Amino acid sequence: MIDVFDVIVVGGGHAGCEAAAAAANRGAKTLLVSMDLSRIGQMSCNPAMGGIAKGQIVREIDALGGLSGKVSDRSRVQFKMLNRSKGPAMWSPRTQNDRQLFADLWRQYLEAIPQLEFWQEPVKELWMERNSLRGVVTARGNHIAGKTVVLTSGTFLNGLIHIGEKNYGGGRAAEPAAYGVTEQLISLGFESGRMKTGTPPRIDGRSIDYSKTERQDGDENPACFSYENLNLTDKQLPCFVTYTNPIVHEILECGFDRSPMFNGAIQSQGPRYCPSIEDKINRFADKTRHQLFIEPEGWNTVEIYLNGFSTSLPEDVQWKALREIPGLENARMFRPGYAIEYDYFPPTQLSLSLETRPIEGLFFAGQINGTTGYEEAACQGLMAGINAVQKVQNKEPIVLGRDEAYIGVLIDDLIHKGTDEPYRMFTSRAEYRILLRQDNADERLSPLGNSLGLISNKRIEALEKKRADSQSLHAFLNKNSAEPSEINPWLQAVDSAPITQKIRWAQLLARPGIDLNGLAQTSNSIRYELSLRSVDSITDAEIRIKYAGYMEREKDTADKIKRLEYVSIPADFDPMLIHGLSMEARLKLRQQQPKTVGQASRISGISPSDIAILLVFLGR
Q1: pTM exceeds 0.85, yes or no
Q2: What φ, ψ does residue 349 adopt, rounded to 5°?
Q3: 4-197+342-451: in CATH 3.50.50.60
Q4: Minimal CA–CA distance to 380: which of 438, 417, 425?
Q5: Three-state SS at 443
Q6: Which of 35, 72, 127, 403 fits a 20 to 30 Å CA distance from 582?
């Protein structure tokens, strides 16, 4: 190609799609290179988006101007807000999706971006000249010039698929692996490793007896990931639940000697929190059953995803075990489950912008950094695409703090702590999760998205209206009071202490078990105020009142810790000269070269006493 691109994105998975969209929507001349353009936006495993902590990430992607939320909403077959019984910091949206429609919508969105071009061909190596990045070289020897490159290789780098004692090269089912890139990167000074993931068999839904399973429907009034009004239908498909049993476990155990997980064929580390079925029955031998989710693959297919039955056991063992599961006695498989091993590069070799340290202008995003999950990949792709443009424009990188976004937590964890197993996001990883709720992602991040050209002014106007409505409702509840005669009968009905004198509505709302919908049953004025506002603004006001103390304490803690982010570590700093530091701390500081004391404090192996010594050395 003659053109010189601002950004070349290699790979068309979730990370690659978000990276390409972000870069092109910011006005950069962008090229998306994929070995098969008909497979971009594929849901390689579960046809679902969101879930615990992952749903928060999808909302953050949308709040910044990414596309995963819109694609998920428009392709959903079911929506659920998980953890409604817990506090709002734990509420997590999740969609079950139409697999084919999801990929089709990604293609439509990407093709509608004027600055984005496409090229179908495998990339075999980076184009390097005098240790400087010039672009990429394809399998047919085409040299494509680019100022920056975002590598989002997923599970394709030296991918190896395992089914029982059989194994063969592949990036995922029916697709070839990618060779050459790992070896070149190692020769350029990178450290690499191997990880494993897996997927369950796909079942013919016509062969399932649903009467023996438990039905699970979506929310009655489904919400959305996106903050835009997409005018979606409320039509949904049900999922179903069934369980394994001791007979199933016995059959699976009989195949362990032929399992690549137990016979030594697989040496790499798989995801701790999404284990295979054979791993579950081996690690939790005391459990007599495990839950399985029967999930539809889409509106117009009978194919079923058996969530919870990820496996790499031989096909005959999979067949036999499946048919002992209630409802699956006559099950027919479309294809068996399998495990896949692939290369990754420890993310401690990156800066917080996701640019690699050894090669300027090269960015990594997604599973190449040791993460697992569509959502984790997509948010990395978004940030890599944003920062590739920042690099081209000679601007400072955009780095989100741990108190600003789950995306900031994920990237900070990867860069400073690294990972030796597939990294998955959880709410427990975010120390400021009351501040990082799924409902306020727009307030936290949309102004930034607007400044980058990824969020429209119309979205900002909608955000400002939501804020104004929330604040005015908050003021009303703080100003107006409930009369004992008015509220006490209802309070007694819900087992809350009656009041002896007038009390502000906000004080009542702060009580456990009390919500605005309940108070509206007793007050015409509250009912009227709620009728004037959107659900989002009402939810925002209610959360701010009920959790004000927690939020203030969390913000104070974040502000104190953030001060360490302003204590810079000089570029020529040599930790080996500070003998008060532990040897592990000295080695980690030298290896990762944090720019601030705050970054240093989050590196695994560096203790609070090491930080105290470092502060003394820096004159603080």
Answers
A1: yes
A2: -90, 5
A3: yes
A4: 425
A5: helix
A6: 403
